[in-house]
């Protein structure tokens, strides 16, 4: 791994799951494994961010979160990366652009929960993100409707793949997105912090 960037052979399809992972938990592992199965991905990279621009309070120290992410994730096709810290990017659009410049031979798919799709239109340069990479949306308990009816979903409705075609997402040209429902797993970083089991 160089500059926080995992190696990917030419033509591989890599799902990107970004976040603070503060802390990483079974819910992250669950959606990652489902994404590998559903979206035709060769690998998933966890992009552990230095900090979330949409959150006022900073996360735990990056090295600690990286170590915890590696400890919880034993899947051979999942890699943990601090690429954003090396690249100096804070926003997803810039991170994706930097990744595509660094590894133009790799096909990237941005992964996110339906809760993030509901607020996707608030992200900086969200339409550029959608134009650069396909989006794999994983619906967790309690957030299915808001994501599917939100502003971003309405704007991008012409580019939506049917869930039965989800395995084609990784080879689809952007803009393209697919919304899949997952089995229940309601683990939450916020709840883990609130119960005092982290920090």
Write the layout of secondary structure elements.
Blueprint: E1 13-19, H1 26-38, E2 43-48, H2 62-72, E3 78-81, H3 83-87, H4 92-102, E4 107-113, H5 114-118, H6 126-132, E5 135-139, H7 144-149, H8 151-155, E6 160-161, E7 177-181, H9 189-194
Parallel strand pairs: 1-2, 1-4, 2-3, 4-5, 5-7, 6-7
Helix pairs in contact: 4-6
Q: Which terms summarize this structure?
A:
alpha/beta, 35% helix, 7-stranded parallel β-sheet, 199 residues
Describe this structure in words.
By secondary structure, this protein is of the alpha/beta class. Helix content is 35%, strand content 18%. The protein has 9 helices and 7 strands. It has helices at residues 26-38, 62-72, 83-87, 92-102, 114-118, 126-132, 144-149, 151-155, 189-194; strands spanning 13-19, 43-48, 78-81, 107-113, 135-139, 160-161, 177-181. The protein has a 7-stranded parallel sheet with strand order 3-2-1-4-5-7-6, with helices on both faces. Helix 4 packs parallel to helix 6 (126-132). The longest helix has 13 residues, at 26-38. The two termini are 27 Å apart.
């Amino acid at each position: 791994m160089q500059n926080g960037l995992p190696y990917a052979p030419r033509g591989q399809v890599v799902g990107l799951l970004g976040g603070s992972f503060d802390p990483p938990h079974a819910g992250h592992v669950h959606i990652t494994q489902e994404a590998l199965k559903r979206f035709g991905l060769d690998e998933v990279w966890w992009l552990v961010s230095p900090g979330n621009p949409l959150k006022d309070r900073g996360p735990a120290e990056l090295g600690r979160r990286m170590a915890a992410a590696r400890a919880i994730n034993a899947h051979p096709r999942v890699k943990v990366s601090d690429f954003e810290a090396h690249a100096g990017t804070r926003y997803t659009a810039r991170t994706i652009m930097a990744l595509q410049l660094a590894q133009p031979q790799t096909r990237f798919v941005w992964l996110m929960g339906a809760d993030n799709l509901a607020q996707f239109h608030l992200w900086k340069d969200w339409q550029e993100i959608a134009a650069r990479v396909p989006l794999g949306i994983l619906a967790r308990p309690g957030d299915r409707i808001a994501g599917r009816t939100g502003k971003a979903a309405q704007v991008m409705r012409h580019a939506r793949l049917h869930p039965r075609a989800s395995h084609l997402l990784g080879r689809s040209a952007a803009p393209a997105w697919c919304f899949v429902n997952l089995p229940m797993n309601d683990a939450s970083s916020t709840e883990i912090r609130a119960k005092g089991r982290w920090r």
